[in-house]
Amino acid sequence: MATSRNQPCPCGSGKKFKRCCGVIGKALASEGTPTNGTVAASVSMIKPASSHPRTFTLESGVKISAPDSLELLTPYVLQEQLDWFEDEIGFVRHFIQPGMNAVDIGANYGSYTFSIAQQNNHLGKVWAFEPTTDVMKHLEYSKQLNLANNVELIACALSDHCGQAELSLENNPEFNRLATTTDDPTKSKNGITESVSLRTLDDFFESISIQSVDFVKLDAEGEEVKIIHGGNAFFEKYSPLVMYERVHAGKVNEGLIAAFATIGYSSYCLIQGLNVLVPLDPEHKHDGFLLNLFACKDDYALQLEEKGLLIRDISAHCEMPDNMQDYLAEYYNTSTIAPILANQWAQLSESDLEQVNNILAFYNVAQDTSLSALIRYKALLTAKIKAHESITHNPTYSDLSTYARIATEFGERRQALEATQVAFQRFNDTRTVTIEKPLLAAAAHYDSINPGERSAEWLISSIIEAGEKLRHWSSYYTGDSAMQNLVFLRDTGFWSSEMQRRIVLIEQRYLARRQA
């Protein structure tokens, strides 16, 4: 049961809903209007959970059909973020060029399928494999909505043999999987299965005439190794870049990493802040937030390196630019907060100022896309190391914010989250915020927000918002535990449109449920 306009707002502000979160929902309604029978991905259009289809428009303009239910992951995330939550989808969009051919194995509702179709300018082909009947109906509708005639939808599962199998159906179809002979007869939490056709990659691509495949997204909930075994000729002939799940069922998929190595495919991980792939270090302990890896053969790795998309050897020597002062000046010339606090920062000791200036200069080198990927990577790594040194002893709010930002962009999400938590705990204990040094906002979009005379609120809001985004992939998982922080962000006025959408989604899904 939704909250009525005259009831107290469930967020705890003490105001009536119509004067509080209801205002946000009303404002969001004006952000986009439905066209041609479709609905923009705005929380203002949320309906009660149902099995009816609804069209969600991503920020890129791609349209995705999915069930109209906040109890399902995909519809929730697409409304919250106007995109899929994985960092890797941004790299895939960057990588795909007009005319490229791609394969999406485990297409689900098509966030990758139709994003790729858009990026290749409908000049290349996309083969999307999805065995679930209900999901396939949504894919067929999305194909019409996006005028994606270059997408071929294949209603089958892939494995190491052809035939038939039982597909265990879960509440969220992202987790549907092929049942095995050792499974409980009920096969799934719901006890629901669907008979599906099985094919192999080799069988399918031997039946059609195609010269090249540039990219494969492989997400088959535990069937990936078998798919590789059934696609040896495919992977040898086409040598595509593959994106695959690093984590399955809560564990690192070591067997899949090894399976790719066996066929000559080296694995890489994404440096999110650079949109560059680097070799996977088996000795490095990545945190659980790293969900996906990429793999390719050496011949393709060389091509990607020449395009600035991949680094084959991160230990290779390179020289930093000799105009580091120019990169530092860029920070002071473009920062919205530097002019406000310049006089205060001028009182810093020479050593403190030199330390933070080095971090900022190296960080800005990493942002210079005219430089090689290796130089940018080394610069970001140096900035991260120096920023980490700054938080090891009595870190300031500025130190913690800067480190959180750089660690996030370097792919060390757990460490970034911990930095925001330390800063937030200090704020809870003291209720005061000081900006002692030049800094980077923990949340990148705050760079463009001029805090005026409210620098302290700007900083703590940035830290809280970054923490909210870092602690899980979506508020779908965190639920109403985020409400207190979101209300704080609302009250400061320093918050992104995504945080505004989150507060309404939480009210719709969780708090209204309690009042039912």
UniProtKB/TrEMBL annotation:
This protein's name: Methyltransferase FkbM domain-containing protein
Gene3D superfamilies membership: 3.10.450.50, Vaccinia Virus protein VP39
Any signal peptide, and if so, which residues? Answer: none
Residues in Methyltransferase FkbM domain copies: 104-250
- Record's InterPro entries? FkbM_mtfrase, SAM-dependent_MTase, SAM-dependent_MTases_sf, SEC_C_motif
NCBIfam families per record: fkbM_fam
Which PANTHER family does the record match to this protein? METHYLTRANSFERASE, FKBM FAMILY PROTEIN, SLL1173 PROTEIN
